[in-house]
Write a structure and sequence with these properties.
Helix content is 38%, strand content 17%. It is of the alpha/beta class. The strands form four sheets. Strands 1, 2, 8, 9, 10, 11, 19 and 20 form an eight-stranded mixed sheet that branches. An eight-stranded mixed sheet has the order 17-13-16-15-14-5-6-21, with helices on one face. It has a three-stranded antiparallel sheet with strand order 3-7-4. The chain is globular, with a radius of gyration of 24 Å. The model has no long low-confidence stretch (mean pLDDT 95).
Amino acid sequence: MKNYDVVILGGGISGLTLSIQLKRKNPDMSILVLEKRKEMAPDSAFKIGESISELASHYFREVLGLKDYLVEHQLPKYGQRFFFKSRTKDVIESRIELGPRKWLYSPSHQLDRGTLENYLVGLVQVEYGTEFLLDADVKDVEFDKDCSVVSYTHQGVPMQAGARWVVDATSRHSFLKRKLKFAKPLDHPINSVWWRLKGVVDVGSWSESEAWKNYPEVKLRHLSTNHFLDTGYWIWIIPLGTKNTSIGIVADPAFHPFEKFDTYAKAMEFLKENEPLLYNKLEPMSGNKLDFKISKHFAHHSSRLYDGSMRWGVTGEAGVFLDPFYSPGCDLISINNMWLGDLILRELSGENVSFRAEIYEQTHLGLFDAWVPIYHNKYQLMGSSQIMTAKILWDWAVYWSIPTLLYTNNALTDLSVLKLLFSNPKGLGSKFKKIHEQMQNLFVAWGKYDNNQIFERKFIDPLDLSYLLDFQTNVGTQYGDKLVERATHNMEILEKVAAEIFRRVSHFAKGTSLDMAVNPYTMDLDNPVPTHNEDLNIPRDEQIVRDIDNIWFYGKEQTA
């Protein structure tokens, strides 16, 4: 039996990227990667998760050193783009479109997962000297404080490997979660199907209007992660570097039962009924279908992630996963690998990491719990262009201003920063979670008054909002000892934005004054007028008022 510093169960994107991250820090580390798949991945017909956002792009480009590869072999991402419902869904220019006119300042990418993972397999073997085995089926792990034993078969032959560290990267198979029984319920029963088509689907060509086609300064709408929304569902269209296209339907069974779209034929009928334009554009390409996959109740939680004493960890979908709406899959992998990789490197250098592992696990699970309200009970709002515009831009502001900022500044492995930000019940971390929960609750409460009003023919560029422009342009800025000061500044901006949105909603729903002071941590649409003893009442900010004017539709157009 051969011993290794790290044995990784699973050779998909989470396990491969972790192995590269570790080897770049410690080239002498011995790593074995065991992948159950018998052959290399097929291009364009493999796994969900082709779109990555700014946090994950930083991980791939800067931490893993894959910038040149991504630029040469994968597609750039022209931001996320959303098309809301209109009275005439078959006329794309009638829909409100939310997306950038120009390239965003912080780069991101669309990934052909088959092409990428095959490249990473070659990279870990040739450049980093990692042992990688296909047709390696893990059967058991016996944990021991000195050296754990991984039992597996390779091409059917029983084998064993000794492991200082065992990492579960088996995706939804979740080997260790099942073995050690640390699965945790998560109330988000959303379903998805997706398929890949041979050929390019150019959303930017779906109109006869030259004005519409020429409005974005970059006439490459098809390079966006395109979303089409209505009540209870959204549909993605994502380009792949192999000049193929990924299509997906994601829906809440409370509105759209899974059996209505769980085969390709039924999925096309779903499009025909709900998105006739997409059906008319995609149906002629049916003969080019490369695959069709399903995922029922895809969101899942975990009560454990890392164990510094017994030296194991989970990463990727083997741990936690929420919802693909904002393309967070590789963000979760990036954050997970950052913490797990740091634990492994420290422990192998002689540090006792038991306490640090507890801190990382608590912070990671706390961050995940804070993200759950972004999606939970929100599919009911997808038919409201006004609410979803405000929500999407709020969610982006939250994502760019705090989590991505801390990640790109390497703050999440700095215990002094974590203590400063998250240990105090009244600190920035607690405020961040609270204000985010308040806003997600507000969106749901707002839905009772909106009645899915239809607005049409508007183009919303997130970077027309000054605070979003500021957050986006500074995603990768290194703040050094000014980081906490910058994070605090960002929180103050979020407070002002939350207060202004609440004023608008309360005025619309309850007729309250637009000039009223608001405490964003206690605001309540059922009782909107603040009391005199509030600890924090935020007055209106003129710039924020102008920013929210840009995305406020009520009173500006006749509705249905």
